[in-house]
Amino acid sequence: MGRAFGIVAMIFGLISIPLCVALTAMSSMSSVYSLLLGTPDVLALFSIIGWLIPSIAVVFGIIGNIKDDKKGLAIAGLILGAIALILGLVIRFMIATLFSGLMP
């Protein structure tokens, strides 16, 4: 099969770290502001996109490890996707902890 799954995992893994961090922080802040101000959260869709890209990197990394002949790119994409997911969770919890005192 070559290295197709590994290449896709690596591309999504490289994209996922800055995208997941930025979109998670932005959507978390938007959720806090919408809760405080009573307005609808219009940026919730970005949160879904921010979690979808690293998940795709992890899935293709696993498939690449199983099916591809050369596993280096698949392992790198898997690791980068997992790091992006963990960073996204850490940022979400940090923002929730920071603003937990502001909630009524």
Q: How would you describe the overall organization of this protein?
A:
The protein is mainly α and 104 residues long. The protein has one domain (4-102). Helices cover 82% and strands 0% of the residues. The protein contains 3 helices and no strands. Helix 1 runs antiparallel to helix 2 and helix 2 runs antiparallel to helix 3 (72-98). The termini are far apart. The model has no long low-confidence stretch (mean pLDDT 81).
Largest sheet: none
Number of helices: 3
| Terminal residue distance | 56 Å
Overall mean confidence score, pLDDT = 81
Low-confidence stretches: none
> Into which percent range does the helicity of residues fall?
over 70%
Structural class: mainly alpha
Q: How many independent structural domains? A: 1
Structural Rg: 16 Å
Question: What order do the helices and strands follow?
Answer: HHH
Task: Write a concise synopsis of the structure shown.
The chain has 104 residues and is mostly helical. 82% of the residues lie in helices and 0% in strands.
Write the layout of secondary structure elements.
Elements: H1 4-37, H2 44-67, H3 72-98
Helix pairs in contact: 1-2, 1-3, 2-3
